[in-house]
Amino acid sequence: MQAQSTSTSIRIDAHHQERVDLAAAFRWAARLNFHEAVANHFSLAIDSGGRRFLMNPDQRHFSLIKASDLLLLDVDDPLTMQGDDAPDITAWGLHGMVHRHCPHARCVMHLHPIFSTVLASLADSSMPPIDQNTATFYQRVVIDDGFGGLATEIEGERCAKLLSDPRCKVMLMGNHGVLILGDSVADTFNRLFYFERAAETYIRALQTGQPLRVLSAEIAEKTASEIESYPGQSTKHFNDLKEILNNEGSNYAL
Fold first, then answer.
1. In what order do the strands lie in the sheet with 177-182?
2. Cα separation, 29 vs 38, whole angstroms
3. Could you please report the per-residue DSSP string of the chain?
């Protein structure tokens, strides 16, 4: 009989609110057209060391994911990929390695939204501070220019090594997409929303062919610091998103 990972087969209520929040993030990512068919993955650490985490099941569309669908995984479980409900191999390769090596990465969202991916496809993937949203990420983005194919554990290990600075919570994955880190689902989703928004502003500004009005380094850093200390926005944003889903009768929390 084939051994089955205990971590992937567990369905428990001990972390119900974390499951509900993560499921809501999937639903909104799909609604905003941030999804990639049945690919891409979000994960959320549920222990103090960050080694046990929730993640979406193998190849299920974001718009269908419910709280009870989420897998509970353990980076130290050698049987994770042998269970009947093993995660997608690239999800394990990337998220498993990030949670293994970056305990500060409580929540990890990897996806390929259009404008972030366009930015990741440019020879120069830096994003100058040309408005408030782009300034939010001033000197706070890691640009990975070493894309090595699908995110196996080797590729995941390589990416995790680039995330050692807790100040940088966005990794623009060259030729690939984006990876966002955060302290909670709300914090991470809010950062994802505004990074994609910032990337869209920049790409559309480039399309005009006109000179860009770039903020000074001093004002860009001041703006980024002020936004980082702005009270409660991510929580209020995400709570309202869940309220919209609830008012619509969504089954995401089941």
1. 71-74, 52-55, 41-45, 107-111, 177-182, 170-173, 141-144
2. 12
3. -----HHHH---STTHHHHHHHHHHHHHHHHTT--BTTB-EEEEE-STTS-EEEEPPTT--GGG--GGG-EEEETT-TTGGGSTTPPPHHHIIIIIHHHHH-TT--EEEEE--HHHHHHHTSSS------SHHHHHTTT-EEEE----SS--HHHHHHHHGGG--TT--EEEETTTEEEEEESSHHHHHHHHHHHHHHHHHHHHHHHHTSPP-PPPHHHHHHHHHHHHT-TTHHHHHHHHHHHHHHHTT--TT-
Whole-number Å distance between alpha carbons of 137 and 116: 13
Residue-wise pLDDT for 168-201, tens only, equals 999 999 999 999 999 999 999 999 999 999 999 9
> Largest Cα–Cα distance of the chain, in whole Å?
66
Identify whether the C-beta of residue 198 lies closer than 8 Å to the C-beta of residue 170. no
Q: How confident is the model over 127-152, as pLDDT tens digits?
A: 999 999 999 999 999 999 999 888 88
Pick the CATH number of 6-247 from 3.30.2310.20, 3.40.440.10, 3.40.225.10, 3.30.70.3290: 3.40.225.10
The pTM of the full predicted model, rounded to 2 decimals, is 0.92
For residue 210, the one-letter residue type is Q
Residue 46: both structure tokens together: 């549920």
Tokens coding 172: 């623009």
